[in-house]
């Protein structure tokens, strides 16, 4: 089983638009370190048999898929409807070409409702264009493309986000991005996963995201085998952060591949 981290950055990416010369605000991140250049978060989970599940369609999805040589996925999952997790949805269109049916898509009931309202043409077709994706709720889903799927809801400030656990080939990957507190369902879902990919916006507490201490708390509480930090902002320099975290925790970056 394989995790491909397509993007690892916060909603504005790193560098943020701006800076003294207009070429980007890097904050505390060293511009000379390639792993500090972060696009918006998305991941792919891949089985030994080659099945691929995409989680979230970030605004940088086209670039991310091309960089990793990914030209097809078997299904798409959305954590929630925020722009940095959904507004690359049009980049699914080329992966619809040559398929006999739309790409399967899944999300929590509220996420599905919001996505259908915002991107109706993706899920129903329009003006002679094929339906790109057929979206359904997660309620009855237990298996997708040979990969086991489980989920729970997390608080994301006043909103909610969906956490996922993927099981295949005797290995487990947990994915928890955009959460602001830890609940029992999360601990149960991620209990002893082989790999936990976890939200880690910055070191200081934040009203809608996990900070470093909370990220490490979730990893410890679930007894995750490995942990990778994601959704990192411009205060989280790769080298500085890598030097202060435990040995079984790594700083995520765009293009990181972890094979279990």
UniProtKB/TrEMBL annotation:
Protein name (Swiss-Prot/TrEMBL): MBL fold metallo-hydrolase
Pfam families documented for this protein: Lactamase_B_2 (PF12706)
InterPro entries xrefs: Metallo-B-lactamas, RibonucZ/Hydroxyglut_hydro
Keyword vocabulary terms for this entry: Hydrolase
Domain Metallo-beta-lactamase: 52-231
GO molecular function: hydrolase activity
Region (Disordered) location: 10-39
């Amino acid at each position: 089983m394989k995790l491909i981290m397509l993007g690892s950055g916060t909603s504005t990416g790193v560098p943020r638009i701006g800076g003294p010369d207009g070429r980007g605000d890097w904050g505390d991140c060293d511009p000379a370190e390639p792993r500090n250049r972060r696009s918006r978060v998305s991941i792919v989970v891949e089985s030994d048999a080659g099945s691929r599940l995409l989680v979230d369609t970030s605004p940088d999805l086209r670039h991310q898929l091309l960089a990793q040589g990914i030209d097809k996925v078997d299904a798409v999952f959305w954590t929630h409807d925020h722009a940095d997790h959904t507004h690359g949805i049009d980049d699914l269109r080329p992966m619809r070409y040559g398929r006999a049916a739309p790409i399967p898509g899944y999300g929590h009931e509220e996420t599905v409702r919001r996505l259908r309202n915002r991107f109706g043409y993706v899920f129903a077709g329009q003006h002679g264009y094929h339906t790109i994706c057929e979206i359904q709720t997660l309620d009855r889903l237990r298996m997708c493309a040979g990969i086991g799927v489980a989920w729970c809801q997390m608080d994301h400030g006043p909103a909610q986000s969906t956490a996922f656990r993927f099981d295949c080939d005797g290995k487990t990957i947990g994915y928890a991005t955009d959460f602001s507190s830890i609940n029992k369902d999360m601990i149960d879902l991620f209990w002893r996963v082989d790999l936990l990919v976890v939200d880690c916006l910055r070191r200081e507490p934040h009203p809608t995201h996990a900070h470093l201490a909370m990220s490490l708390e979730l990893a410890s509480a679930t007894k995750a085998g490995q942990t990778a930090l994601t959704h990192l902002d411009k205060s989280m320099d790769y080298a500085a952060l890598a030097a202060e975290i435990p040995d079984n925790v790594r700083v995520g970056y765009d293009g990181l591949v972890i094979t279990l």
